[in-house]
Design a protein that fits this description.
This protein is mainly α. It has one domain. 57% of the residues lie in helices and 1% in strands. It has helices spanning 15-22, 37-43, 49-71, 78-90, 92-101, 109-122, 127-139, 158-165, 168-182, 188-193, 199-223, 227-231, 235-238, 241-251, 261-264, 272-278, 284-289, 298-305, 316-332, and strands spanning 349-350, 356-357. The chain has a two-stranded antiparallel ribbon with strand order 1-2. The chain crosses the membrane at residues 56-88, 208-232.
């Protein structure tokens, strides 16, 4: 679907933010698939057991792979251990902070918060900044000028996507944001989604994170070895690639400025290993439509609403068979996007700029 396109400003303080408000896209009412109230209430029930089990497995796998990397440090045998450790550290942690930010992973709040802070550190995200940034993402999903988590603004930048593959862009941004926040300053964009009452928490957390990273660097210097950084800090970079592979599959190439998650989010069937690393976020459409449903209940939610949604992608490869040519085309035709096929009884029309119209 090619359309006339004017380059858009994806910042949160530019003209697109005002345009989104004028069009009624800010904090708007989104389409929700029909789920019986009793069934939805059951799906939203929080439990400790599934997340405790999965977190213990995660920590155990980190310990075993990390120990193997340390034991074989200095030889080629450490590479497969650090490969696994890096994915568990730099990619699996991404889904953990995400689910815990919603407060749904565990029933017990301190368990949610504890895993959230650990996972944020592992993914180079400042906890309070990320919590409010992600809340905005859910409120105004892929609304240009409002959503601070749009991975690939049109036309997409291949350089930025490559840097994100190893979290290099995030790493450089973290250095700047930690320094700025430690000094007690926020950007104007950050002020649009972080309440003023939370600012002091941002500043304190930045100072703590800076101290932790300085401690890792100091340990490397004192021991004369890169090994401490291979265990803490560097895995956020060399292990982040799978997180980006998953992240791109969520929304990239789909419609902007729509009020129907079926048009801007993908659900993809994945194997059990990927689902464990990703904490079922492959059911991304379902998660966005009902974000208070815990990750372990998303497969059941998928079954409850699948007849009202576009067909899920059978695997990650199938999703990328759509994403790659779409991104390549958007380089020369930024107005192009993939229109998802909706069930006929719930179909919606989409304007050229992506705004949803009720039918």
């Amino acid at each position: 679907m090619a359309t006339a396109f004017t380059k858009r400003d994806y910042s949160l303080i530019g003209p697109e933010a005002a345009r989104a408000a004028e069009k009624g896209l800010v904090s708007a009412k989104w389409h929700g698939c029909e789920v019986p109230r009793k069934e939805l209430k059951e799906l939203m029930k929080r439990e400790d057991a599934p997340a405790i089990r999965d977190t213990l497995i995660w920590f155990a796998a980190l310990a075993v792979s990390g120990a193997g990397g340390v034991y074989f440090w200095g030889s080629a045998w450490c590479v497969p251990f650090f490969f696994v450790y890096g994915v568990l550290y730099g990619s699996a942690s991404n889904s953990r902070w995400h689910e815990c930010s919603h407060g749904t992973a565990f029933k017990t709040r301190w368990l949610n918060d504890g895993v959230y802070y650990i996972a944020c550190f592992m993914t180079l995200y400042e906890p309070t900044v990320r919590r409010w940034m992600h809340a905005r993402h859910h409120t105004d999903t892929i609304i240009v000028g409002r959503d601070p988590e749009i991975v690939a603004p049109r036309p997409p930048s291949f350089l930025n996507l490559f840097l994100d593959l190893f979290a290099l862009k995030a790493g450089f941004q973290l250095i700047g944001s930690l320094s700025r926040h430690a000094a007690g300053r926020l950007t104007e964009e950050e002020k649009t989604y972080i309440p003023e009452m939370e600012w002091n928490k941002v500043f304190v957390q930045a100072r703590i994170f800076l101290a932790l990273f300085v401690a890792v660097i100091a340990t490397c210097v004192l021991t004369g070895s890169l090994l401490p950084a291979m265990l803490v800090g560097l895995p956020s970079l060399y292990g982040a690639w799978l997180s980006l592979v998953f992240g791109i599959s969520q929304h990239v190439g789909l419609a902007e400025d729509v009020l129907d998650h079926r048009l801007n989010s993908r659900t993809i069937h994945m194997n059990p290993v990927f689902r464990f690393i990703y904490w079922n976020m492959n059911y991304h459409l379902e998660h966005h439509m009902y974000p208070m449903v815990p990750y372990h209940a998303l497969p059941a939610l998928h079954e409850a609403i699948k007849n009202q949604c576009p067909a899920p992608y059978p695997n990650l490869f199938a999703a990328y068979r759509e994403i790659v040519p779409t991104v390549l085309r958007q380089r020369r035709d930024p107005g192009y996007f993939v229109r998802r096929e909706l069930p006929s009884r719930t179909a919606a029309a989409v304007e050229p700029d992506g705004a949803a119209l009720a039918t």
